[in-house]
Design brief:
It comes from Herbaspirillum rhizosphaerae. With 414 residues, this protein is of the alpha/beta class. The protein folds into three domains: 1-38; 45-316, TIM Barrel, CATH 3.20.20.80; 325-413, Immunoglobulin-like. 28% of the residues lie in helices and 30% in strands. The chain contains nine helices and 22 strands. The strands form five sheets. It has an eight-stranded parallel beta barrel with strand order 1-2-4-5-6-7-8-12. A four-stranded antiparallel β-sheet has the order 13-14-21-17, with no helix packed on it. Strand 7, helix 7 and strand 8 (230-235) form a beta-alpha-beta unit. Helix 4 crosses helix 5 (151-162) and helix 5 (151-162) packs parallel to helix 6.
């Protein structure tokens, strides 16, 4: 059979087109496959520095976290409900030498009625003072838990404050989930250049400090309210909440001890595991307009109501978290007496175990530091009397036992 020239030409064109198609499509398929296998990009991260009086541990924490954050939001002053200004005393040298962006934060008490020109002038004066110290301030943030009914007045205050700032200075505000149903919210958010939504809140002590499902819902709703860039504030701290007999919150103790009058109190903390999982979801599927995460607050070695620096840095670096709790029996100076030490050898802060079982052969024991001795049909045990975290790399003495045999058995129940 004889092939015509037209048939040969047709086959040649077909083969050439197929080759061109494969040359174009195969690399594209490879790129798509690589993109699917590539881990999601990490959202930019900043952190609040919330100490009014800086200690060396604050500077050390800044330096240790330098590679994990891209900006600091630093408390400059706080206006109390009694119209008193409490001015922070940061380490100017530490702020001068940082390579990251700095936002100067002014905290206004939620009960203040000082949304006036005098407050605007005070904020502007603070900014001038910081820049006279050669601090590279890129923006000003107002942290004000404004009552929802006062959002229009707050928007007016911010409009006046914006006139005190130069064009290159970003005006930022913190935002509360309780504002989401207000018709005045979008006008408020239009005034600020950017905002930070706080998804950690003590709305009800029984709901805890952070709830991932509730936070996701807030993010979705908030993204529909603003056309400006925004960030989300995630918690690393714990707080002690007291409430009265009527169920009303009477005190919230976070940074500083308070004299609470409530008869009932509870320690609320943000679980590193829960927050880490929430963060992974944000990296994978960020809400529209979300440009980063701001951590509240920078952990230090002496901040007992915060994650350990080890855990915080592991979460920021997206490292797997693991806690390893063991109870060590250490001989005491008294014969037959042994101290019980709970130790966390993992990289994640861990909730204190509710029960530590004691060897039945021990004839005496007692608990301390949040543990009390009890007994049931199985024998003696130390029961946790208050919730809390044992920080990664830390230890806690939880009690003592008196036993005659050298091999003492303890069992941690979680």
């Amino acid at each position: 059979m004889r092939c015509s020239p037209f048939g040969l030409q047709h086959r040649y064109r077909y083969r050439r087109l197929r080759s061109v198609f494969l040359l174009l499509v195969l690399p594209l398929c490879g790129a798509l496959l690589a993109a699917c296998q590539r881990p999601p990009e990490v959202l930019p991260q900043q952190a609040y520095i919330w100490q009014r009086q800086w200690s060396p541990s604050v500077v050390n924490a800044m330096q240790a976290s330098d590679q994990l954050v891209g900006g600091w939001r630093v408390l400059a002053a706080e206006l109390t409900a009694q119209r008193q200004w409490k001015i922070a005393a940061p380490d100017w040298q530490a702020l001068r030498t940082t390579t990251h962006a700095i936002v100067m934060v002014v905290r206004l008490d939620g009960q203040t009625d000082s949304l006036d020109a005098a407050t605007q002038n005070r904020v502007a004066d603070l900014l001038t003072r910081w820049r006279q110290q050669n601090i590279p301030v890129s923006g000003v943030e107002i942290d004000y838990d404004c009552p929802t009914s006062q959002l229009p007045a707050y928007a007016g205050f911010l409009t006046g404050l914006r006139q005190h700032l130069d064009r290159d200075t970003t005006l930022s505000i913190t935002a509360l989930p309780t504002w989401l149903n207000s018709p005045a919210l979008n006008k408020l958010l239009a005034v600020a250049d950017e905002s930070v939504l706080q998804v950690h809140a003590v709305m009800n002590p029984r709901q805890g400090l952070f709830d991932a499902e509730r936070a996701h819902a807030w993010l979705k709703a908030y993204a529909k309210q603003t056309t400006h860039p925004w960030r989300v504030a995630l918690p690393s701290y714990s707080t002690r909440v007291s409430w009265d007999d009527n169920g009303r919150i009477s005190a919230v103790e976070s940074e500083r001890p308070l004299l609470a009058s409530g008869e009932t109190s509870q320690e609320l903390s943000a679980s590193p595991t829960a927050v880490s999982a929430f963060l992974a979801q944000l990296d994978k599927d960020p809400s529209p307009g979300l440009i980063g995460v701001v951590w509240f607050r920078l952990p230090t070695e002496d901040d007992v109501r915060n994650w350990s620096p080890t855990t915080w840095q592991a979460v920021l670096a997206r490292q797997p978290l693991s806690s390893s709790l063991t109870v060590e029996v250490l001989p005491n100076a008294q014969a037959g007496l042994h101290d019980l030490t709970l130790r966390n050898t993992g990289n994640a802060d861990s909730a204190l175990p509710p029960v530590v079982r004691i060897d039945a052969a021990c004839n005496a024991a007692d608990g301390i530091n949040g543990y009390a001795l009890e007994a049931d049909a199985k024998g003696k045990y130390l029961r946790r009397t208050r919730e809390g975290l044992l920080r990664a790399g830390y230890q806690r003495n939880i009690g003592w036992v008196r036993c005659q045999q050298p091999d003492i058995q303890l069992h941690v129940e979680r």
